[in-house]
Amino acid sequence: MSFSQALSGLSAQQQKLGAVGNNIANSQTVGFKSSSVQFADVFAESRIGLGTRTSAVLQNFSQGNIESTNRNMDLAIAGEGFFRFQQPNGEVGYSRNGQLTMTADGRLVNAQGAQIMGYAADADGNVQAGGDVVGLRVNAENLQASATTSVSTSLNLDSRNQPGEGLQEANVITNMQNPLNPGSRESFNYNFSTNFTTYDSLGNPRNIAVYYEKRPEAENSWLGRVVMDGYYDVNSDPVGIATGEVVDGVQEAQAVASNVYNQLLTGMSNVRTQLEALQVAMQSAASNAQAAGEDQAGIIDAVNSAAQAFASGSGFTLSEVLDNYLNGEQITPAQNSVYAAYISGVQEAMNSAADSAGAVAATSADPLADPDSIDAFDAFITASQSNIVGNAPTQLAAVAQSATTLIVNSRAPGNNIDAQITAAQGTDLDTDADSIAAVQQVAVNLGQEVLAGVSDPAVINAVDQVVSDVNATTSAISDVVAAAVAADPGESFEAYGTNDFVLEFSQNGTLSRVGQPQLAAGGGVEYVDVANNRPVINFSSTERTPLGGASESLSFDISLTGSTQFGNSSVVNDVSQNGYTSGSLVGVTIEDDGTVMRNYSNEESRAAGQIALVSFRNPEGLKPNGDNLWTATGASGQELVGAPGTGQRGLIEPSAVETSNVDLARELVDMIVSQRAYQANSQTISTQDELLQTIINL
Q1: What secondary structure does DSSP assign to 643-666, as a single string?
Q2: Alpha helix locations (H) across 371-451?
Q3: What would the 3-class secondary structure string for 570-603 be?
Q4: Which residues form the Flagellar basal body rod protein N-terminal domain (predicted)?
Q5: For the residues 434-448, what does the mean pLDDT come to?
Q6: 131, 147, 605, 668: most buried, per Cβ within 10 A?
């Protein structure tokens, strides 16, 4: 029996030496976890056992040392957890080795081609944390430009500045059509200026300068003027607003005329439709009476009864037919007279008929063929005209009158009213001289209104010029409006610009309000508070601005929160903006939370995804698969996936690797111990052999 015990010992020590040798061999393998062999004795029914056996090979998942590599694609896990890899064959494996490379198509893989997995990011770089875990890929497409929409700045304006003192002069362009012309440039004074860069929709950098001047109008108040690439927009000065009111009035006059025109046409068509329905009802009654054997008198009674029932059932009054068009005003008699004239004409024709068949045929006559019906229809149109014009705004009543007169004249008295309605529908309001004249008069009236209380000669001259341009236009109304829009309103540069704003500070030096200018009701300028102290800045994409019409209009707001007015030098404390030009991918970095960042040449970064970590209830139950990979088993439990730093999962150390947790000194000691045990078991076999030889030789 001694032979078998010794042989089991030799076998066990051989396995232990194998584990020790494997540990030593992998002492420099990144992420390697050492193993150890456990033994158990083998019992027999006798008091002496049958030797030993290997009961288990245990994995040691203790943390190895973390060493810096200065390679941004090397990753280590500080704490518990495993990287999740998808192998080329589709199977999932787990590893502590985070040495990655990026393939030509952007996949992040280890040396064996297994792709690391995590949470994907959308096109804007938002990580879909908690979603499906997928193989991570870095998109190498260029980052498109993004226009600036928000600027944040805080500054201190020197409270010691006095209005009109210590000023500098800024020379700016006010007309980009001819920027070299001296007349296209103006100057203004300022105490302090700041500069920052914004970006338009094409990624072009736009230099923004803001000039601050201490205002004499109020204490602790400053005027800010915004200039882009040397251009100062004066389109919204009082001149522009005044002339804009004239233009808006001309456009409103045109719209009212068209609306009135359409109301009248709709009313005419609706009444015509009702007449046709009434005719059908009367024809049906006549035919039914004839079929029942009624004589001529009976047919006439049936037709009259049908007409009364139709009127009662349909309630064909003007207020109900045209309520949406005539603002609820009733002109019932005018409309009902049309129906009464038609019914009267049918009765006369039926009475004069030779027999019952002729009475039935009389109901087929055109409802508007009878002269009395035509007169009644014309009276209805006239009443409708008066009602619609009466409901038009007072200032625009003349425009409405000209529009309704045009349609009435288009439907001249006579036969074939349907054809005349069609002709009226095709009439072009914009070519009617009376309508054009009415619109021109509106422009004159508005010009007088907007100039009330205005003393600035530039404003007066500019508005007069717009009115003159309108009156000089004799073509279509649309051309009148175009002329008003295109008219040069002149300039009153000293008033304010499109992007001006005021800052007012409290007596403790903090910002109390920000306002932007508008034309006051009685003339002059007033500054209206802006929300959250964020004035909105606009530079349109036209030939008048440096944008040149190539990009979209540039619009952004400026947050001035935190700005102060203390007795120190004027200074900018902070400035930032959210726009950027286009950029190409120049590198990839990984954050300690596993976020994979794409870095672009425009100094912007976007997330490409987030590396996920996996934990297990019993990591020692994992099955080694080689290549530093393990697979899950029933003993390990199911994987628990999450972001680094959550749950029991550790954080990621970028530009570092986790070395093997093999303790070489201990392994060498174990090797010596195993060697001695192996030799002792060999000696046991030798001794047993000598004893057997002695017994045999007896």
Answers
A1: -TTSTTB-EEEETEEEPP---HHH
A2: 371-390, 397-410, 417-425, 433-450
A3: CEEEEEEECCECCECEEEEEECCCCEEEEEECCC
A4: 6-33
A5: 78
A6: 147
pLDDT tens column, 100-133: 999 999 999 999 999 999 999 988 888 987 788 9
Q: What is the pLDDT of residues 312-344, one digit of tens each?
A: 666 554 334 334 333 434 444 555 677 777 777
Predicted local distance difference test score (pLDDT) of residue 323: 40
Rounded to whole angstroms, how far apart are CA atoms 98 and 116?
9
Report the amino acid identity of residue 445. N
Report CA-CA distances (Å) from 22 to 2, 95, 395, 596, 662.
30, 18, 100, 35, 10
CA 685 to CA 618: how far, in whole Å? 41
Q: What gap in Å lies between CA 321 and CA 461, rounded to an integer?
A: 49
- Those residues whose C-beta lies under 8 Å from the C-beta of residue 28, and which sit 6 or more positions away, are 659, 660
Task: Quickly state the pLDDT bin for 491 (edges 50, 70, 90).
Answer: very low
Q: At 647, which amino acid appears?
A: G
Phi, psi angles (nearest 5°) of residue 319: -65, -30
The CA distance from 520 to 508, in Å, is 30
What average pLDDT does the segment 11-21 reach?
80
Secondary structure (DSSP) of 491-505: --TTT--TT-EEEEE
Nearest 10 degrees: Cα torsion 592, 594, 596, 599: -10
Where are the chain's structural domains? Answer: 2-63+661-697, 66-143+584-658, 150-237+497-577, 263-395+413-428
DSSP reduced 3-state for 567: coil
Q: Which residues contact 3 (CB under 8 A, 6 or more apart)?
A: 685, 688
522 CB-side CA count, 13 A: 0
Q: Are 54 and 39 in contact (CB under 8 A)?
A: yes
pLDDT reported for residue 561: 92
Higher pLDDT, 92 or 256: 92
Q: Which two tokens stand for residue 180?
A: 């070299």
Nearest to 145 by CA among 576, 578, 563: 578
The angle, 0 to 180 degrees and rounded to 10, between the axes of the packed helices 238-291 and 332-351 is 30
Options 2.60.120.260, 2.60.98.20, 3.40.50.1820, 3.50.50.60; CATH for 150-237+497-577 is 2.60.98.20
Is 242 in contact with 618 (CB distance < 8 Å)?
Answer: no
Q: d(Cα 534, Cα 571) in Å, to the nearest integer?
A: 19
Q: Report d(CA 244, CA 486) in Å as an integer.
A: 11
Tens-place pLDDT, residues 262-309: 777 777 777 777 778 888 888 888 889 888 888 888 888 888 888 777
Residue 220 and residue 511 in contact, taking contact as beta carbons nearer than 8 Å:
no
What backbone phi and psi angles, to 5 degrees, belong to 601? -70, -15
Query: Which amino acid belongs to residue 497?
Result: G
HEC string of 45-108 equals CCCCCCEEEEEEEEECCCCCCEEECCCCCEEEEECECEEEEECCCCCEEEECCEECEECCCCEE
List, in sequence order, the alpha helices (H) in 180-317: 238-291, 296-314
SS3 214: strand
Q: Half-sphere exposure of residue 178, counting CA atoms within 13 Å on the CB side?
A: 4
Q: According to the 3-state scheme, what is the secondary structure of 532-570? A: HHCCEEEECCCCCCCCCCCCCCEEEEEECCCCECCCCCC
* Residues sharing a CB contact under 8 Å with residue 236, sequence separation 6 or more, in sequence order: 496, 497, 498, 517
